[in-house]
Amino acid sequence: MNQKKKLDLNRREMPKQPPHIRRRNFKEVAMGYTVELAVGEAERCLQCKKPLCVQGCPVEINIPGFIKCIANKDFAEAIRIIKKTNCLPAVCGRVCPQEEQCEISCILIKKGAPIAIGRLERFAAEWEASQEHIEIPKIPPPTGKKVAVVGSGPAGITVAGNLAMLGHDVTMYEALHEAGGVLTYGIPEFRLPKKIVRREIDYIKKMGVKLITNFVVGKTKTVDQLINNYDALFIATGAGLPWFMNIPGENLNGVYSANEYLTRMNLMKGFNFPKSSTPIKKHNRVAVVGGGNVAMDCARTAARLGAEEVYIIYRRSKKELPARLEEVENAEEEGVIFKLLTLPIRLIGDENGWLKEIECLRMKLGEPDQSGRRRPIKIEGSEFIMPMDACIIAIGNSPNPIIPNTTADLEVGKWRNIIADEKTGKTSKDKVWAGGDIVTGAATVILAMGAGRIAALSINEYLSGEK
Amino acid sequence: MFEVIEIEMIVPNLHLLTVRAPDIAEQIKPGQFVIVRSDEESERIPLSVADWDRKEGTITIIFMEVGVSTQKMASLKQGEYIPTVVGPLGKPSEIEKFGTVVCIGGCYGIGSIFPTIKAFHEKGNNVISIMEARSLNLLYWKDKIKPFCSSLFTITRDGSDGDIGHIKHIVEILHKNGIKPDRIIANGCTFMIYKASKDLSIFNVPIIVSLNPIMIDGTGMCGVCRVTVDGKMRFACVDGPDFDGRLVDWEELLTRRKQYVDEEAFLVHNSGCGGI
Ligand SMILES: Cc1cc2nc3c(=O)[nH]c(=O)nc-3n(C[C@H](O)[C@H](O)[C@H](O)COP(=O)(O)OP(=O)(O)OC[C@H]3O[C@@H](n4cnc5c(N)ncnc54)[C@H](O)[C@@H]3O)c2cc1C
Ligand SMILES: Cc1cc2nc3c(=O)[nH]c(=O)nc-3n(C[C@H](O)[C@H](O)[C@H](O)COP(=O)(O)OP(=O)(O)OC[C@H]3O[C@@H](n4cnc5c(N)ncnc54)[C@H](O)[C@@H]3O)c2cc1C
Ligand code: SF4
Ligand code: SF4
Ligand code: FES
């Protein structure tokens, strides 16, 4: 460790749109570092000989390496280093739960001022995007091996990009009309602008990846049919099937799954109605059930659509909220009201079949359960009613069953998730690998990419080993 | 991109669209549907596949002009390309040898039930077809359907073809002709398949209807197509669209389909089936 340098504990904040303004627009909330802020933040890094931060990153980016380049203003080299192990830095720099991964592992956390690794990563990616010429890595001569990738979310993109870089002939299949998975249909514009996702897709296309949209594997063709034309196949179809609460009134008008609400908004551009012809309703009082990133995204979207009151209804306390702290704070600043320790038990409709009220119960916290979080317990007799125009249910998703249901010899688990070897991504089926949310259940972008990276290595090994 | 091979108004307000989609043509089975976007700003709308030609790699849809998206589709020209035709989606209809099968089609359902009629015939069933419309000038594909049925009845509300009346007259027709169905299938607007499910339940046989709730992705991801069948939540795009109409919560379905009535400017149409 460089002891001579004076410790700088001033973690540089990233400029943000002020809450009262951003609450009503769809532009990105956090505006990114300026060169000056980025260099200042990078200079704080101690360049540890045994960098703990790297161990916290699921794709093991050479963090001190790229930060040093930023400090030296060699931004081109910074992005080159990042891209060696992470093909989506502009995305990860924005949506990774850094506070639980690289940044929590940074040595400076002890002083309460870890290096803002994610923000620097984002900065490097933005710098690259602002250049006229985006560097495409040199691709070795074609190996003659063909790989199919099913699903174009972060796991699929990672596998496609990594294998194309090695000279394999990759085709990526996507069910929707646009690629990107949750990055495109789920995470809103104000957190992850869609042009960034499109840029990343263009990048892997430039590396030679063929993209076929409007193709539902398992329906348009089955895995068993596709596999005949390929040497290997990777399944990354994500966790798509929304859960409901199983309480009365969930099919009332004005009740949505988070996926529906966000898809109308993001993929179908509902904010642009009627120019884009898919409508999204503007409701006055909106309740979002759940406490994760998805719930925060729904609540903040509802606010931007003009809702006067937006509630998050969550059955545990604030400490247990699974969403990123930053997103919880953003939501609070934008006026979202947190109804904690509250459980919806009935949705009540009016005479025309529209939601009118939500009946809830108050909860208290008991002993920790298997997940280590304190178990919420119902307080008998504490029922109360909240008048509400809309309710968005954001309590999770299970894996999409289309492929498991139509593929022979593919071993699946209790939740119909595909079983794949943790170290290789290999499934029980010959020539087939899988990774991302379809294997783990709903997780994170970077974990999906990590799984993709492992599978790409294993697939490449397999393809190289073949005659 | 998908090439428009043929587009034609076959009767007032109902259009026939044939597109080249070889992968779908190869896989499609009776009862399945596709999702179409006719341009980049368009909604994703679900439409049943009424016919296909595996050799030519084409599929055919019969659709009714009701709102913005179907209006745009109606103005397509031969040789143009559209960005999305995805499928085949949903489960295929159950085609077994049931005995006497009564197939009822109304509106776009006359087209969408055609593959099912053919398949039942090929399985050796005794197929009775009933076509329902407001008036003779709204009936189509009679000649195409006839060869696959032992009898074909038509009902028009003004009596310009076949019997005068509405869905409830089907019971009379069946009684009059001594037909005892082992299975009933109905395709068409929600109101028609709802009426069929109610009126024909006296036969005590499954009444298989193709449900048409609002959809977005068609792959089970968004949940907007959820319906209650036999007290359980089902997603019509992956668990259906075929369900036993006797078990469907119709009031809920009819209400849910009206969610965007305020937003969607309805086109006034004269097909007379009371709106899909
Ligand atoms: C609203 C929301 C907010 C989130 N916020 C964050 C965050 O801030 N940070 C974070 O790290 N994570 C976040 N996540 C989680 C993260 O987005 C996911 O864990 C990640 O996208 C999983 O990647 P994946 O590649 O496995 O699948 P997905 O991104 O789900 O992509 C799967 C793709 O496969 C396609 N597909 C499915 N079935 C088929 C088929 N049969 N044939 C062809 N294609 C098919 C789908 O259409 C989809 O495009 C969020 C998730 C949501 C929904
Ligand atoms: C499985 C399935 C198969 C179908 N097959 C056919 C077919 O073969 N031929 C045909 O003419 N129609 C069919 N439909 C109905 C067709 O999807 C709607 O008529 C179409 O979406 C209306 O779009 P629009 O923009 O023109 O009308 P809009 O202006 O959007 O809406 C008019 C009204 O139609 C209903 N509607 C709107 N969007 C949808 C939607 N995505 N799905 C269902 N209803 C909707 C609502 O009641 C709405 O208020 C089918 C529907 C389903 C679910
Ligand atoms: S990819 Fe995510 S975990 Fe890794 S360094 Fe970047 S922000 Fe941190
Ligand atoms: S980011 Fe933190 S842990 Fe990593 S090298 Fe810099 S100071 Fe050390
Ligand atoms: S249409 Fe989205 S789940 Fe059925």
Describe this structure in words.
The complex is a heterodimer of chains A (467) and B (276). Chain A has 467 residues and is an alpha/beta fold. Chain A has 3 domains: 19-129, Orthogonal Bundle (Fumarate Reductase Iron-sulfur Protein, Chain B, domain 2); 146-240 and 398-463, FAD/NAD(P)-binding domain (3-Layer(bba) Sandwich); 244-395, 3-Layer(bba) Sandwich (FAD/NAD(P)-binding domain), CATH 3.50.50. Helix content of chain A is 33%, strand content 16%. Chain A has helices spanning 19-22, 35-43, 52-56, 63-71, 75-85, 89-95, 102-105, 117-130, 154-165, 182-185, 194-206, 223-226, 258-265, 293-304, 325-333, 402-406, 437-440, 445-465; strands at 146-150, 169-173, 210-212, 232-235, 241-242, 255-257, 285-289, 309-313, 337-339, 342-349, 355-368, 374-378, 384-387, 390-393, 397-398, 432-434. In chain A, the strands form 4 sheets. Chain A has a 5-stranded parallel β-sheet with strand order 3-2-1-4-16, covered by helices on one side. Chain A has a 5-stranded parallel β-sheet with strand order 6-14-7-8-9. The longest helix of chain A is centred in the C-terminal third of the chain and has 21 residues, at 445-465. The mean pLDDT of chain A is 93. Chain B has 2 domains: 2-89, Elongation Factor Tu (Ef-tu), domain 3, CATH 2.40.30.10; 100-210, 3-Layer(aba) Sandwich (Rossmann fold). Chain B has helices spanning 22-27, 68-74, 109-112, 114-122, 142-145, 169-176, 190-199, 236-239, 250-256; strands at 2-11, 14-20, 33-37, 45-48, 51-53, 58-64, 81-82, 84-89, 100-106, 126-133, 151-156, 163-164, 183-187, 207-210, 226-229, 232-235, 242-244. A 7-stranded mixed β-sheet of chain B has the order 12-11-10-9-13-14-17. Chain B has a 5-stranded antiparallel β-sheet with strand order 5-6-2-1-7. In chain B, β15 and β16 form a beta hairpin. The longest helix of chain B is centred in the last third of the chain and has 10 residues, at 190-199. Classes of the chains: A alpha/beta (467), B alpha/beta (276). The A-B interface holds A 175-177, 185, 213-216, 219-221, 240-242, 244, 250-251, 253-254, 256-257, 259-260, 263-264, 268-269, 272-279, 281, 352-353, 400-402 and B 23-24, 27, 37, 41-44, 68-69, 83-89, 216-217, 219-224, 226-228, 233, 238, 249, 251-252, 255-256, 258-260, 263-264. Residues 95-97, 150-156, 173-176, 181-182, 186-187, 216-218, 236-238, 240, 262, 293-294, 297, 324, 400, 402-403, 436-438, 442-446, 448 of chain A line the site of one flavin-adenine dinucleotide (FAD).
